[in-house]
């Protein structure tokens, strides 16, 4: 029978409760879930930690991040170096790297490289195969570049 011929579920105070119509059972059913959520599956964001450079003291490509289904990458540049130049690059399926532009979150400046430290950068990584933060120059200490990728 159609849903509009069925009575809705009410609580002991005769007030309708959150519910849905289930055509398989041909009845309204109370929404029930955990942690106060009414039977919802929250797919939400998948977040993974990314380490592109870890206390590097010399120039180098670091560890590329495989993008997979991730859409956004947020990284922080830190370390003890007195100077550094970091090139942000995206790789294609053939292993070729080209510059990728990101946005420094503190002032929304867009660039494909950084000479700063204690900076947070955000990148749209849809369509890239891999992402790396290549250190092209470093002096007087180390550079660490870590962050998170989100779907």
The top level CATH class name of the largest domain = Mainly Beta
The end-to-end span amounts to: 41 Å
Strand content: over 45%
Helix fraction by DSSP (H/I, runs of at least 4): under 10%
Shape: elongated
Q: Helix-strand pattern, N to C?
A: EEEEEEEEEEEEE
Low-confidence stretches: none
List the total number of helices: 0
Quickly give the structural class: mainly beta
Main β sheet profile: 6 strands, antiparallel
Count of discrete domains: 2
Radius of gyration: 25 Å
Number of strands: 13
Mean pLDDT: 88
- What name does CATH use for the topology of the largest domain? Jelly Rolls
Would you identify the CATH architecture of the largest domain?
Sandwich
State the strand order across the main sheet.
3-13-5-11-8-9
Question: How is this fold's topology laid out?
Answer:
Elements (H helix, E strand, L loop, with lengths): L18 E4 L4 E4 L16 E10 L8 E2 L5 E7 L4 E9 L5 E3 L2 E3 L4 E3 L1 E2 L4 E6 L5 E10 L3 E8 L1
Antiparallel strand pairs: 1-2, 3-13, 4-12, 5-11, 5-13, 6-7, 6-10, 6-12, 8-9, 8-11
How would you describe this structure to a colleague?
The protein has 151 residues and is an all-beta fold. It has 2 domains: 7-41, no CATH class; 47-150, Sandwich (Jelly Rolls). 0% of the residues lie in helices and 47% in strands. The protein contains no helices and 13 strands. A 6-stranded antiparallel beta sheet has the order 3-13-5-11-8-9, with no helix packed on it. Strands 4, 6, 7, 10 and 12 form a 5-stranded antiparallel beta sheet that branches. A two-stranded antiparallel ribbon has the order 1-2. A hairpin with a 4-residue loop joins strand 8 and strand 9 (109-111). It is elongated, with a radius of gyration of 25 Å.
